[in-house]
Task: structure prediction
Amino acid sequence: MNAFLDEINKETINSYIERNLDDFYIKASEHPNFISRVENKISWVLARYADWPDCIFRVDFENLDVNKEINKVKRLIKKGEVPNGWTVGPMTKPNNLGSFLVKNGFSNVYQQAGMALELKNLDRQELKANNSKIEKVENEVTLIQWSNIVSKVFNIKVDISLLKFLYIQEEAQFYLGIFEGNYVSTLMMYLSSGVAGLHAVSTLPEYRSKGLGLSISRRALIDAFKMGYHVGVLQASSLGERVYRRLGFQKYSAIISYALVNEG
Result:
């Protein structure tokens, strides 16, 4: 199915998946409302006034004392200087960092499937719900609608000033799903590292099971293909994984989020 992806090794595909997410975090870290550290050994972005994005990522503790490095970070987390969320993916080093985190008081709190698709193989069959349509966010008014949906669905505080900053970046594209005249679903497509990444895909609970998630994802990926992108990537929940397989995505890796357990 994914002929281009079949010709390259799994490590390269996983780098597409993980780097797109990392690129988004790094871009967000440029906004003044975020405290960040971006370097080869470890990177993080810490939101001052919101809950997202807010995590440790792109860690390389290879050839270092892993327990010692983790405990340095733990002390910073307890001081509130570093986010209590640690993303571990296939490019993390060492590749068993998750087991070190668990031994040092962290817990596996969320797991996603790293997925990829060669866009020429995208299933383009429309499954759009009746009385629905997909549109790109074209102004700050609808950007606020986008923010409100994401905030409600994921139960997080979103920094609208960050969204306004991202909105003017060429690599960020925002989409809204509309059902019977109401804004009900969202998606952000982030174009980086040569691939199109889907993020913040959400649908209000009362409008789910109507095909809106598939429709909004398909529209964004078709747009990316028209712009010359050949690979789509995303991180999906277990439920989302089943949905995205319907578009032709395949799972290549696991992206796991850890958090430090309250040690009293």
In short: The helical segments are 3-6, 10-28, 66-78, 97-103, 140-154, 160-167, 212-226, 238-245. The first strand starts at residue 34 and ends at 38. The CA atoms of residues 133 and 178 lie 5 Å apart.
